[in-house]
Amino acid sequence: MQLHIANTEANTNMIQSNRNPGHANHSANHSANHSANGHNFIALEVSYTLIEALAPIVPVIARNDRDLADQIRRAATSVSLNLAEGQRSIKGNRHKHYAIAHGSANEVKAALFVANAWGWIDQGAHALAILDRLLALLWKLTHA
What global pTM score does this model have? Predict the structure, then answer.
């Protein structure tokens, strides 16, 4: 899939300001609070960023395939929830949750490729860039 990535920072800011005018400040405060409390978990924060990037794309996919859109929502949500649960689990369960999150992130990536192959989207480049970062972080978590 060839998707053009153009000015992704500006696109992210535009998406955030269009969805919720105070959201960009909320995200900054959310990250600052996590860092201040010593709960800075980069993969979890990136998973939230992925959901924000998917928010404008999923409705476009839903117009063509509601099941695929629902699968993307559930898989992206699974990534965040499994990372959060794994963060508080003991070693064996931690790895299990991180592995599930890794599989779910890969599922989101495949679903975006499918939607693109069907010709339903062409604006998924920013989400794919975030997914690549998240998959790298998850690979490190599952292979540590």
Answer: 0.73
